[in-house]
Amino acid sequence: MKVENQVLPPPQQAMAFFTAPEDGPFVMVNLLKFHDRAQYEDGDRGLSGYDAYMLYGEAVRKLVEGLGGQVRYQGRVTDLMLGEVEELWDVVALAEYPSLESFRNMAMSPEMHAIEHHRKAGLKGQLNIKTKPGEGF
Description:
- The protein has helices at residues 11-18, 49-66, 100-107, 110-122, and strands at 26-34, 70-76, 91-97, 123-131.
- It contains four helices and four strands, in the order αβαββααβ.
- Helix 2 (49-66) packs antiparallel against helix 4 (110-122).
- It has one domain (24-131): Alpha-Beta Plaits.
- The protein has a four-stranded antiparallel beta sheet.
- The chain is globular.
């Protein structure tokens, strides 16, 4: 299995995701890896990658809650019991969204655009995995 962290999806991958059929509520699993030092386009602001991302994260929490979703969990990755990866992620976060449309609207909103620079500065890479609660078992 190939694992490749990215900060932004390639355009064709984003288009396929956002134009998929609406299928109701889902939980996004976010596997996050941070830069040691935040990498802002305008220079060093004295923040770690984690701290920069948390500025983004707190603002996103409010956006998610405003559309009827919620951040269900956030925790630091401390160990790997099973499997193998070259490098562990730093944080796992689970966010529940009421619909793909609400997620798309949030992702394209001016409010998201206003905070996106913190996300880009903090993240070294991530995986976003869309899941459907209650399905698969």
